[in-house]
């Protein structure tokens, strides 16, 4: 692996977005939606469409579980992204392909609270030793994901 892949981002860390306050040590950002599951899901699909971000796939884990006779609380992964952005990250660090396209998981617990979870792009960038010159791209993706989740989850959303 070229030495540039081990470069740290400029400074201690790139600019911090509001989403960083919700991040756990595992790089996942989780926000409770102020809305019900169906409305949260519909708002995510509409938000991506409004932004012209291609929705590549939806993986409904609960439906898959039901198809085998198993019960599971709602859990659906939305896979989306822009190849113009993701490709440059994968060119800089090919292992980024395991984490791209972007994903947002929508789950529901027993209460029922609805949750949105995604991987923090800066954490993912560190995991894949993305070169420093690509960190502004990761920051822009981080800001985009935080904005999408904020808009989808509603004004009374809260961090987990």
Q: What is the CATH superfamily? A: TT1751-like domain
CATH class: Alpha Beta
**Oligomeric form:** single chain
Largest pleated sheet = 6 strands, antiparallel
Give me the side-by-side strand order of the main sheet: 2-3-4-5-1-6
Radius of gyration: 16 Å
What helical percentage do the residues reach? 25-40%
CATH architecture: 2-Layer Sandwich
Q: Give the number of domains.
A: 1
Query: What is the CATH topology assignment?
Result: TATA-Binding Protein
Average predicted confidence as pLDDT: 88
Class from secondary-structure proportions: alpha+beta
Structure, described:
- By secondary structure, this protein is α+β, with helices and mostly antiparallel strands.
- The chain has a single domain (25-159), classed as 2-Layer Sandwich (TATA-Binding Protein), CATH 3.30.310.70.
- Helices cover 36% and strands 21% of the residues.
- It has helices at 37-50, 61-67, 83-92, 121-127, 135-153, and strands spanning 28-33, 55-60, 75-80, 102-108, 114-119, 158-159.
- A six-stranded antiparallel beta sheet has the order 2-3-4-5-1-6.
- Helix 1 crosses helix 5 (135-153).
- It is globular, with a radius of gyration of 16 Å.
């Amino acid at each position: 692996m070229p030495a540039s892949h081990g470069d740290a981002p400029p400074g201690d860390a790139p600019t911090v977005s509001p989403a960083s306050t919700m991040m756990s040590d595992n790089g996942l950002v989780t926000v409770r939606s102020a809305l019900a599951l169906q409305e949260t899901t519909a708002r995510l699909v509409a938000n991506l469409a409004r932004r012209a971000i291609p929705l590549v796939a939806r993986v409904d884990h609960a439906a898959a579980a039901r198809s085998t006779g198993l019960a599971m609380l709602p859990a659906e992964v939305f896979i989306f992204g822009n190849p113009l952005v993701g490709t440059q990250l994968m060119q800089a660090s090919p292992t980024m392909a395991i984490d791209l396209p972007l994903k947002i998981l929508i789950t529901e617990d027993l209460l029922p609270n609805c949750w949105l979870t995604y991987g923090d792009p800066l954490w993912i960038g560190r995991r894949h030793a993305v070169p420093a010159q690509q960190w502004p791209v990761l920051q822009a993706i981080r800001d985009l994901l935080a904005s999408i989740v904020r808009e989808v989850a509603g004004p009374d959303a809260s961090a987990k």
